[in-house]
Design a protein that fits this description.
The protein is of the alpha/beta class. It folds into two domains: 231 residues, Type I PLP-dependent aspartate aminotransferase-like (Major domain) (Aspartate Aminotransferase, domain 2, 3-Layer(aba) Sandwich); 124 residues, Alpha-Beta Complex (Aspartate Aminotransferase, domain 1). Helix content is 37%, strand content 15%. The protein contains eleven helices and 14 strands. Strand 6 and strand 7 form a beta hairpin. Helix 1 packs antiparallel against helix 8, helix 2 runs parallel beside helix 8 and helix 8 packs parallel to helix 11. The relative contact order is 0.18.
Length: 376
């Protein structure tokens, strides 16, 4: 099977022998947990620089990172958070567990990111945050979002967007807080890991207060609190930090190969009749998945059949149903915490999407043969 030229298999390896050796050395030295300093501080500084912020605070997963970012800007019971309808249910969970309401916004017709017009339309005195998804690695339009949000804090969910830029800068330079998942299969992964990046030392301290027991107050910088943490323990495992640091070392090469491979796959999708995601604003995306759309549901079925016959694996639409129709809002404890709104753009695109895995590197022979099949 390994010599089969038609096998769709990502050649890139995220975890390598040197990573396993480093984790083994860490565990042999008794590094099963860490409160402060050492690899934890090193990772936070390194990741903050990578993501475009001055401060980083690591968590055990991306959902906890979003939860603590929302809490850091003051989101609590009775408050409202604006979220695009094309998104993952964990974004809503981070809001709901704080007792706040999810207010649904429509998405952009080409990029699937949150609509700045809807932010302006649905923003109220109760709005405490705008939570911005960057689906599949496509950066949102942060200038337009900030203009619509006015003085409401903008929190980026960059779980798909490691290495993406907007107007030449990483996403952490544009949001008040930028939350990353470094979970399983993410572009940089520690297995289970998250990190929030911010330029504001007050937000950085609040992230610690709400998620890093035993690190507070000693590591605080802004002198707003002189006691222990008040939230749940959210700090990460050192083995996850070690794995992610190894991938950060190799990320420039990974991003280069991913850009080349995704470009070729998007070309194949275009040959089959699909339109890949695009932005009208200056940005450079990355690819956690490759998503394109057809003209109609029938057209998508036709394209999907062509791609499957040519050897391209397809995935289900990950966000169908859309966010406001997902089961999480039917949980009894969350009754009344959703403001449903019409989202005609999201509804129109929902059945027109095609999703393909985004391998970092595929054999040229495989891509050439797929292109030949699509040309027949």
């Amino acid at each position: 099977m390994q010599n089969d030229p038609l096998r769709w298999h990502d050649i890139w390896e995220d975890v390598r022998e040197q990573d396993i050796a480093r984790v083994g050395k860490l565990l042999s030295a008794g590094g099963l947990s860490i409160v402060d300093g050492s690899i934890l501080t090193g990772f936070e500084e390194r990741f903050a620089s990578f993501a475009g912020g001055q401060h980083g605070v690591a968590f055990h997963n991306g959902t906890m990172a979003i939860h603590c970012a929302l809490r850091a800007v003051g989101v609590g019971p009775g408050d409202e958070v604006l979220i695009g309808n094309y998104g993952f249910h964990a974004m809503a969970a981070a809001v709901l567990t704080l007792g706040a309401r999810v207010v649904i916004c429509d998405c952009d017709a080409e990029a699937l990111t949150i609509s700045p017009a809807d932010i302006a339309r649905f923003r109220t005195a109760d709005t405490k945050a705008v939570l911005v998804h960057n689906p599949w690695g496509v950066p949102a339009d942060y200038s337009a979002i900030r203009m619509s949000a006015q003085d409401v804090p903008v929190i980026a969910d960059a779980s798909h967007a490691h290495g993406a830029t907007y107007k030449g800068k990483p996403l952490g330079a544009w949001a008040d807080l930028c939350a990353y998942s470094l979970g399983l299969t993410k572009l940089i992964s520690g297995g289970e890991l998250g990190c929030v990046v911010t330029d504001d030392p007050r937000y950085r301290d609040r992230l610690l207060v709400f998620g890093h027991i035993n690190r507070v107050p000693g590591a605080l910088q802004a002198d707003e609190w002189a006691h222990n943490a008040v939230g749940l323990k959210g700090r990460p495992h050192p083995a996850a930090l070690m794995l992610a640091l190894g991938q950060l070392d190799r990320f420039a090469e990974k991003q280069r190969l991913l850009t080349e491979t995704a470009g070729r796959i998007e070309h194949l999708l275009s040959r089959a009749g699909a339109e890949p995601l695009r932005t009208r604003w200056p940005s450079q995306r990355v690819w956690w998945r490759i998503v394109a759309y057809g003209r109609t549901a029938a057209h998508v079925k036709e394209i999907s059949q062509r791609l499957t016959a040519a050897g391209v694996p397809l995935e289900k639409n990950h966000y169908d149903p859309l966010l406001q129709d997902q089961p999480i809002f039917s949980w009894p404890g969350y009754k009344g915490q959703l403001q449903r709104n019409p989202t005609p753009v999201c509804e129109g695109l929902r059945k027109r999407l095609i999703t393909v895995p985004a391998p970092v590197s595929l054999p040229d022979q495989l891509l050439d043969q797929i292109e030949q099949k699509l040309g027949n």
